[in-house]
Amino acid sequence: MHTAEGSVSLEAIVETAVSELPLRIRRAQRTIINEGSAHVVVLLEDYAAVRVTRDLFTANKLRRRQQLVDSIPSDLGLTLPRSLGPVVEIEEHAAVATEFVSGAPYPAGEGEPEELQRLLEAVSSIDPCPLQSMLNEPLSFCGGANWYSVQIEEVIPRIDQQFRNLAREAIAALAHLEPEEQVFSHGDLGGYNVMWHRGQATGILDWDLSSMSDRSTDLASLGVWHGWEKLSKIAGADQVTRAGIRRNTFRLQQLGFLIIAHRPESEVSAAIGRANSWIAENLA
């Protein structure tokens, strides 16, 4: 089995996380999924999944994030990765065994607007009041209250000179976005975070970015994955415009996360390239 970053092996972390689970789960065949820059996920057939943080930056947040998932009402109508055991910590890593969420991501660019709207409304209807202490502040992953200074001081200087003004304009547009009604927001509602079966959303993964925000946050994520042209059938023109402002900074936000999380320079460099390419294709 591959090793997690640092001296402790991924196998040892997973063994610790599943140590109190039934034998059939502990002995299940394991499949490693490199899930983005923050976590590695190890699937134990269709019994469970073990989520392992890559570094201390995300390890410190895992316990609260899992508490949030376990606290979301069960009548949501969607399967969530609820805890099967406690969050364990080993060196700079944390891990937790969770329920297996069946289904598969919807192919990029596809998805019926009616079902996307149902998904969006299901998430935004979650009552945030009992969950307040477990929610992030908006944009916490890339700086939170300091996200703007991170963008200006850390992100912009790394962007190619020819694209810096466009990046600044996109950041300024988000910073000056007028406040709107706040609802529960998943924060990354699309792609591999939503499981589907026969054209219906059946489960949601990765609640790490959940916060109070307006509907355009999750609307933007849905549009990026399922097709921007579908948004006009889901929301009004003003919401679509707001979603576009958020979308224009997604690559810059991701770069900000990698910088403040002190991720390896190879990851930062790759994110810089993606940000430059996105600006060139969409904003230039």
UniProtKB/TrEMBL annotation:
SUPFAM superfamilies: Protein kinase-like (PK-like) (SSF56112). Signal peptide: none annotated. Residues 94-229 form the Aminoglycoside phosphotransferase domain. InterPro entries: Aminoglycoside_PTrfase (IPR002575), Kinase-like_dom_sf (IPR011009). It comes from the Bacteria. This is Phosphotransferase family protein. The lineage of its organism: Bacteria, Bacillati, Actinomycetota, Actinomycetes, Micrococcales.
